[in-house]
Amino acid sequence: GEALSLWLNRSINKRIKYLYLDGVNLSLKRNRISREALLCAAGITETGDKEFLGFLSGGRESQISWESLLLRLRKRGLSDKQLSLITLDGNPGLLAALKTCFPEVKIQRCTVHKLRNIANHCPRAIQANIMADVKRVIYATSKKEALERFQTWKRRYQNLAPEAVACLGKDLNETLQFFDFPYRMWVSLRTTNIIERVFREFRRRTKVMDTFPTEESCIRIMFSLVQMINEDWKSKPMKNFR
Question: Is the pTM of this model over 0.70?
Answer without folding.
Answer: yes
